[in-house]
Amino acid sequence: MPEMPEVEGLAQFLRERAVGRAVAAVEVGAINALKTYRPAPTELSGRTVTAVDRHGKWLDLTTQADDDGLHLVFHLAKAGWLRWYDTVPKAMLRPGKSPIALRVRLDDGAGFDLTEAGTRKRLAVHVVAAPSEVPAVATLGVDPHELTPDGLAELLAAKNQQIKGLLRDQSVIAGIGNAYSDEILHAARMSPFALTRSFDADATARLHRAICEVLDSAVDQASGKPAAELKDSKRRSMKVHGRTGETCPVCGDTVREVSFADSSLQYCPTCQTEGKILADRRMSKLLR
């Protein structure tokens, strides 16, 4: 799933290529991806793209016609992506015949598709007068770039829960997902199951520093890259996430995994849990 750094990279990419261009046409390839029906996507046609913003993991294209603004707001979900064309294919989309959920054509012949692989379709597209009309955007928590050490301390104390869950909760901190929460906790040398109310001032400062360093580095790495290169760039930068069985680049221990019903986390025992191997729920069930 694209997270804050990749979504910010996509926002920068689109600002450079789409802002100032008029929308020539919008074609819907997967009706299930469209979460709003009025205004219709076709009402974006003829409007000029005036801004591209990010809200957590959501992208927001502002389009303007006279004094009337409309926003194309979308979330790429777990298997979605944005495919850019310098010249969009001329053929019209055939709904249900491809992984393309939405196609946006610009007046210079360029444009992009929103695509989604797999069978679990979660990509979400909204056409709204304001981003706050999207419930998931309206309820987002603080952006990591605006998070202060004192603000983090308040979030940690608000509810006693596992730190991995808090970092992924979009209503608390907007933009961090499964991958970067693994990387942040590895950088902070913390167990993913550490309880938030156990954090003292030193641990809170260490976590805040790790959030800033990991995400700032990832944003810098994503900046200026074409949309097609962002996924591979993200994978290459990971130290523990997605690297089960590989060697931790910090200490040389083996990266371990804990699996859940529809996701998994990766961690280094030496760096994060004082050498303790965390119980893998999936394997525990198999061994009974």
TrEMBL record:
Pfam families cross-referenced by the UniProt entry: Fapy_DNA_glyco, H2TH, zf-FPG_IleRS
Residues in FPG-type domain copies: 239-273
Catalytic activity, reaction form: Hydrolysis of DNA containing ring-opened 7-methylguanine residues, releasing 2,6-diamino-4-hydroxy-5-(N-methyl)formamidopyrimidine
SMART domains named among the record's database cross-references: Fapy_DNA_glyco, H2TH
Gene3D superfamilies, alphabetized: 1.10.8.50, MutM-like, N-terminal
Cofactors named for this entry: Zn(2+)
InterPro entries (UniProt xref): FPG_cat, FPG_N, H2TH_FPG, Ribosomal_uS13-like_H2TH, Znf_DNA_glyclase/AP_lyase, Znf_FPG/IleRS
Domain Formamidopyrimidine-DNA glycosylase catalytic as annotated: residue spans: 2-123
TM stretches of this protein: none
Keyword line: DNA damage, DNA repair, DNA-binding, Glycosidase, Hydrolase, Lyase, Metal-binding, Multifunctional enzyme, Zinc, Zinc-finger
Similarity annotation: Belongs to the FPG family.
Name used for this protein in its record: Fpg/Nei family DNA glycosylase
Species the sequence originates in: Georgenia deserti
